[in-house]
Amino acid sequence: MVFFDPIKRGWKLSKLSWAVVKKDPELMVYTIFSGVMFLMAISMIYVPELLEMSWTNDGNGNFTTAYFAWVFCCYMSASIFVVFWNCAIVTSAHERLMGGDPTFASGIVNTTRHLPTIVLWGVISGTVGLILRALRMGASERRDVFSQVLSFIAETAWWIMTFFIVPMIVIEGRGVKDSLSNSKSLFSKTWGETIGSGVGIGLIGLLFAIPAVIVGIFLYQLNPQAGMLVLALSVGLIVIWTNTAESVSRAALYMFAKTGEMPKLYQESGMKSYTFETD
Q: Residue of 114, 183, 225, 248 with fewest CB within 10 Å of its CB?
């Protein structure tokens, strides 16, 4: 059926995205840096409290405006770090998909060229993310089904509107406003491929995770420390690989939406006939 053709293409795209990460495992280093720096930024939120700094509360057990500002800055820093490293993955993936041979350093250099836009987008996406999270948590606490549905719709709409923001920033060098106005229309061209690739990457990750968990549980029975270590490392590696593959897939989908053709590397792997009309 024609309806399922985009989803089938997305499934094949997901497998090829995993293959790209296997060919360029250094892409996972970007994801590792993203995770580490994100955790560092979030951890900094609690440092003033742990050190019992006087400016964090007003003496009555209430947090001060200065502390809330500190929390906001830490959260924005975490958001900027995530955007920066996602941009590094996408620009390197784009180079590989076009037949190039990217390095870790070249990805950093290409990403740094767009640093002002990346910082701006990090702050915007982080702020909107905070607002949407607050709305979702508020609806959950009130057990308001209508508000929960509205919150879900708002988060989904934001995800669709911003899906191709990162590729537009680092591949085309567009600004945030221009990227926002074009991302939604590009997503509408690849909705099936996006769903298919997302589900496909998730399923492949799950297929790897199941035996890893089984082995970890088995080792835990013999040696709890060894079992926990193997389980943590295995699941962590799978999560890193999966997140990296998703970024590679997004770069490929962006090129597909813009040109109507799969990237050169995917065409060499058999995806030559998957084309459609573009504006």
A: 225
